[in-house]
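help with this:

***
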Amino acid sequence: MMTTLRTFLVAALAALSAGAAHAAAFEAKTMRESLSAREVERSLLIGKGWLEFGLGNDLKIAHGAWSPTGEATTWRLPGAPASDQVTWTHTTQRLDLRYGITRRGELYWTIKTHYLRLQNDTLGTDLGQFGLGDPRFGYKYELFRSQAPLTSVIAFAEYKAPAGNEAPGNYVGGPTTFSSFIMTTGTPDAEAGLRFKRQVGPLAVLGGASYTRRFSSIVQYVIETDLNQFGGRIKPGDLTKADLGLMVQLGPVAVDGAALFQSRQATQIGNTAPGIVASRDLTDVVDSDGWALDARTGVTLHITRGVDLVGSALVPIRGEDLGFFPIEDIHPTRGNTYSGTLEFRY
């Protein structure tokens, strides 16, 4: 009798254990790395097993540009009153995805749309358009990490694919007439760089540097008239970027600020050359190179461990007239950019 009872208890415990293991699939994932509730203590990678969705919007409002020598200018027709302004509004709607695929590796994607609007009080202009942006995807690899205090050093590689509208119109009214906004360079980019983060108590120092190789392509907004090729080739200037900033943790709020430097090489345009190197006959566009300096400030509110609300402002300090308005990826206008992102993690 005792043997029978003992056998029954063993079988019952085994059944309960099997049921508990089955139910664990609906509970929190146990294979995830730990994630600090404070931004100052988080690695530059999201961590193995974590999936993050970011819903964001960027708003840029510009009333002016930069001169070729880097001086701030205001868009206004000669003789127009000071109250008559030209306003350029550039918005970006983002879906940011991150996934910690390994302990030291992270995959990320960004899918974008844009809404652009140009207003001129003097001429009565009010044009707006919504369209697809250029998607980006990349991979981050953590070269070094230490905890308490945190040190994180990563390398990353990113690719931008041209997908937005590149046709300004049908040119029925001539080559200077357009009916659509250009929302892409029409060319692919490849970027590689390094980033670091070092925690010191409630503070953290962040920075990085990268180089972007921009490739040439035939685009619809470049018109070749000498050889009647119509579709001209363009190669936007390569980019060199660097930034350095500081973060401070104040309870559930992290406040950060940074300086961002960017150098642009000259943009090249021309005819497509025969042979393997199609861009060898391209020539530099005069004054299409230059450098820019921006200041960024941001706030991260930790609602829960899996939900953050992030806001930031980017203020231009110095730039140059690069001659390709309104293509923001080649010719950044002079205006503040305000961003907000709601991040969900699982």
User: Anything to note?
Assistant: The longest strand covers residues 51-66. The helical segments are 2-23. The domain at 29-345 is CATH 2.40.160.40 (Porin). The two ends are 50 Å apart (CA to CA).
